[in-house]
Amino acid sequence: MSSKRILVALFGPEGQGSFNESGATGAERARALAPHHVIRTAWIEPREPDARAAALAKLCEEGWDLVVAHGGQGDEPVSRVAPAYPATAFAITQGGWLAANCASYEVLQEHSAFLGGVLAALHSRTGVVAHLSGEKVRPGLKGRAAFADGVRAAGRNCRFVTGFCGHQHEPDLAYALMRRHHEEGADVVFAMIDGGRPGVSRACREFGIAQIGNVLDWVARAPDIFIASAIADSGACIDAAIDDWLGGRWQGGSHRIYGVAHQDFVRLHMRADIEERYRAVIDTWSSRLATGEYVPAERYEGPEVSAGR
Description:
Elements: E1 5-11, H1 18-33, E2 38-44, H2 49-60, E3 66-70, H3 75-81, E4 89-93, E5 102-107, H4 109-123, E6 128-133, H5 138-153, E7 159-164, H6 171-183, E8 188-192, H7 197-207, E9 210-215, H8 218-221, E10 226-232, H9 235-246, E11 255-258, E12 266-270, H10 276-291
Helix pairs in contact: 1-9, 2-3, 4-5, 4-10, 6-7
């Protein structure tokens, strides 16, 4: 078999953020499993859609057989660039844009986010539960909606506060919004954030707020503040896309999804001291999600807060 050229594009500052860490790890796994092929990782740092599209187009000029764009941030640049390269196959993880030469591979972050919402409501003592994220991209909006739905489904009538700080990789912005959540009375927060997470964690320690992380296992990294992590290994989608393409199973226009039925991809990991009665509730909801008996809400129509007054 001839050697193929595969590019994995990550969006954001190099080496920052759990989401991109998951993606980089996925690319490394794929590289180890396919050593006879060229698999390169490229970081696209600009945040503006025009700059991202221009950077991706420049990379595509190098002649890649497959380009995997990691994250919902890839929807906009791939939708602009892919039509100009019809002979190149594209895949977007956590994306929604499809074309004859582009497929989507998505872990259902909303499954683990929903379970995180149930746990947050059960765990809260103030009855105020918060959500925080950076940019308003499709996966973040869906995750927020599912988390809010989980808070409601727990049946405790908690008040829900939510906001987007505007940037995935700015700790100071995340901290400022966390201060506002604290002022609202929140004692549990679900933070869907990347390089800005240190700002969230600083606020959690300062204000005594329990945190639920996402993507990776944050409980293992900081058990003093993380009561759980809504794991959704989007990096595994990079492995899956590359494996499908090399194995002749990749299909343009297709949308592959992985939810809690695929525990290697999606699950809620809870700290060891979480009460058994709460774990039993989470297990019940996990089963309902896995079978499709329950589908989390995809839209949130309630109010938002910001770091400003």
